């Protein structure tokens, strides 16, 4: 890549994945180094998949030209790492090795997502604080042109795994506090992952404009909220026109996509048609049937919807040799921050004009990729504008032969969408996937 990219480490974690999607939404060239593929994709992404973390520092130094900025939101849990010693290897040793490698290769700005309370009374006693302090001090000593250390409090959002037992309840309580008392109180101790990511990106924008407060810039909780929520809203950060129109490479989706989901259309709150003029079909969130759904991040996805419309339905238009009608779709999985839902929903907007609703109709979804995070909005117009843009992204991305299902003249093997129940049972018996 000729243009220096930005490198993101920890891009499969909560804050890191938000940092990545924020940068991609601005069409910036980004290189990620991770054990498995990051969730977000985009034409400006260069993902380096390296299962052996010992080689990450070398992967970083071998980037040419070197990245101008490196973000590290790398961190694990004691449970996932298998004990404090192993957690130390990732949270401390690997972060330190990466910071050193970054400095060696000429990186100008290093951004580290640390943790709130690392410097407080008794904090030196806690191994977790020690790990973070060790990294912060190394970054300071290395003398980057600029460094940013973010010290968020308790992080809200969905992690792929729980950090400590009771976290779900604690997070639920933090959200509830936000709902009951307004965001002010909630912000003080529980910044949303997205806000932390935006604060990190915003800090780098300010550094690039020569507006950094200090060369070694520490963002405490209040600064994170100011940069990531208030400042961000004033600017064009979320303007859909700055988002890429194509997701993923022309060849087609890469693992873990596509995901499959199925079920009958159930009623939602009915606001889709009424408030937004964008009808949505809700599908049941069935964790035993689709275990991935509990770990997949909330956000907006796109792909194909196949409907078992009855022949009497005015829009019955089955694919050749099939009884299912296949259409492109966009969908939201999550809590709809604009409406502050309590339960997680999966809502599909089928890209087709329907003359009649289709409640109860059996539906199959092939989720081909991820578009963006869910957002909160100042007004309904902004939400509608963003969804309209999502529709355009889906339409254009799915038009490419590598993404278009064979049933509609493309090259992508999406046979599951149109198989009859009997064929499906046969195929599953033979352990065929799609
Ligand atoms: C493509 C798409 C993107 C969406 N993005 C968001 C979002 O960013 N934030 C949000 O609060 N809701 C989002 N929604 C959800 C809408 O708010 C939701 O569909 C609407 O509330 C209708 O829900 P209901 O039919 O259950 O009433 C999105 C929906 C779709 C289909």
Task: Give your account of this protein's structure.
By secondary structure, the chain is an alpha/beta fold. It has 2 domains: 6-242, Rossmann fold, CATH 3.40.50.720; 259-429, Riboflavin kinase-like (Elongation Factor Tu (Ef-tu), domain 3), CATH 2.40.30.30. It is 34% helix and 18% strand. It has helices at residues 14-25, 56-61, 78-81, 84-104, 127-142, 167-181, 183-189, 193-208, 221-234, 271-276, 380-399, 421-429, and strands at 6-9, 30-34, 45-49, 69-72, 109-113, 146-150, 216-219, 259-264, 281-283, 299-307, 325-334, 345-350, 362-372. The strands form 2 sheets. A 7-stranded parallel sheet has the order 3-2-1-4-5-6-7, sandwiched between helices. A 6-stranded antiparallel sheet has the order 8-13-10-11-12-9. Helix 5 links the parallel strand 5 and strand 6. Helix 1 (14-25) crosses helix 8. The longest helix is centred in the N-terminal third of the chain and has 21 residues, at 84-104. It starts with 5 loop residues before the first strand and ends in a 5-residue tail after the last helix. Bound molecules: flavin mononucleotide (FMN). Flavin mononucleotide binds next to helix 10, strand 11, strand 12 and helix 11.
Fill in the keyword field for this structure.
single chain; 434 residues; alpha/beta; Rossmann fold; Elongation Factor Tu (Ef-tu), domain 3; 2 domains; seven-stranded parallel beta sheet; six-stranded antiparallel beta sheet; 12 helices; 13 strands; elongated; disordered C terminus; binds flavin mononucleotide
């Amino acid at each position: 890549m000729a243009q220096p990219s930005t490198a993101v480490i920890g891009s499969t974690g909560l804050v890191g994945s938000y940092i990545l999607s924020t940068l991609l939404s601005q069409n910036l060239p980004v290189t990620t180094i991770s054990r498995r593929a990051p969730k977000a994709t985009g034409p400006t992404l260069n993902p380096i998949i390296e299962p052996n973390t010992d080689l990450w520092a070398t992967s970083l130094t071998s980037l040419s030209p070197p990245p101008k900025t490196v973000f590290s939101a790398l961190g694990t849990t004691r449970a996932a790492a298998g004990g404090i010693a192993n957690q130390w290897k990732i949270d401390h040793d690997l972060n330190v090795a990466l910071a050193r490698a970054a400095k060696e290769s000429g990186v100008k700005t290093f951004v580290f997502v640390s943790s709130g309370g690392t410097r407080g009374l008794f904090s030196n006693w806690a191994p977790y604080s020690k790990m973070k302090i060790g990294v912060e001090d190394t970054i300071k000593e290395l003398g980057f042109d600029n460094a940013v250390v973010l010290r968020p409090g308790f992080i809200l959002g969905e992690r792929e795994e729980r950090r400590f037992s009771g976290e779900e309840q604690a997070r639920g309580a933090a959200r509830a506090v936000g709902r009951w008392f307004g965001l002010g109180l909630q912000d003080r101790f529980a910044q949303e992952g997205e806000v932390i990511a935006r604060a990190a990106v915003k800090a780098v924008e300010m550094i690039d404009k020569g507006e950094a407060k200090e060369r070694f810039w520490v963002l405490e909780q209040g600064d994170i909220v100011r940069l990531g929520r208030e400042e961000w809203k004033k600017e064009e950060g979320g303007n859909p026109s700055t988002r890429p129109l194509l997701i993923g490479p022309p060849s087609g989706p890469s693992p873990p996509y596509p995901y499959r989901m199925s079920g009958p259309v159930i009623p939602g709150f009915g606001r889709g048609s009424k408030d937004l003029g964008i009808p949505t079909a809700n599908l049941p969130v069935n964790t035993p049937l689709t275990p991935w759904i509990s770990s997949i991040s909330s956000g907006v996805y796109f792909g194909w919807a196949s409907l078992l419309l009855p022949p009497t339905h005015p829009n019955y238009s089955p694919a050749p040799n099939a009884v299912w009608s296949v259409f492109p779709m966009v969908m939201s999985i999550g809590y709809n921050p604009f409406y502050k839902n309590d339960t997680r929903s999966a809502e599909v907007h089928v890209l087709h004009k329907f003359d009649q609703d289709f409640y109860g109709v059996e539906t199959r979804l092939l989720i081909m990729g991820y578009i963006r995070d869910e957002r909160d909005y100042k007004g309904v117009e902004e939400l509608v504008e963003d969804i309209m843009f999502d529709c355009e992204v889906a339409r254009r991305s799915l038009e490419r032969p590598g993404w278009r299902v064979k049933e509609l003249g493309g090259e992508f093997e999406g046979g599951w969408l149109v198989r009859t129940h009997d064929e499906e049972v046969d195929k599953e018996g033979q352990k065929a996937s799609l």
